[in-house]
């Protein structure tokens, strides 16, 4: 079927070996763990990709208008004396 590759009976033998090694009770838990790990990996790579895009194109710094100087208050005489 496939040259130098896996044929269907190879996959059957691998499946039987996995069932014998892990048992039918632990296989659903193992599949759940693999699925959860794949979801975490996918979300982390997506976050890294978004982080990388931000690093290559940084946002321009926010500009705030300068504050005018405060006018002097009072008569300039010390209130205490």
User: Describe the biggest sheet?
Assistant: none
What shape does the CA trace take? rod-shaped
Give helix % range: 55-70%
Outline the low-pLDDT stretches.
Answer: none
Order of helices and strands, N to C?
HH
Average pLDDT level: 78
What is the terminal separation in angstroms? Answer: 105 Å
> Compute the gyration radius: what is it?
34 Å
Number of strands: 0
Task: Describe the structure using short key phrases.
single chain, 81 residues, mainly alpha, 2 helices, 56% helix, rod-shaped
What does the model show?
There is one protein chain. This protein has 81 residues and is mostly helical. Helix content is 56%, strand content 0%. The chain contains 2 helices and no strands. It has helices at 8-22, 27-56. The longest helix is centred in the middle third of the chain and has 30 residues, at 27-56. It is rod-shaped. The N and C termini lie far apart (105 Å). The model has no long low-confidence stretch (mean pLDDT 78).
């Amino acid at each position: 079927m496939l040259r130098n590759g896996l044929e269907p009976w190879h996959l059957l033998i691998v499946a039987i070996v996995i069932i014998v090694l892990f048992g039918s009770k632990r296989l659903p838990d193992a599949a759940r763990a693999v699925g959860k790990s794949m979801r975490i990996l996918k979300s982390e790579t997506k976050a890294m990709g978004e982080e990388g895009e931000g690093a290559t194109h940084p946002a321009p710094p926010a500009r705030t208008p300068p504050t005018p100087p405060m006018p002097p208050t009072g008569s300039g005489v010390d209130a205490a004396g």
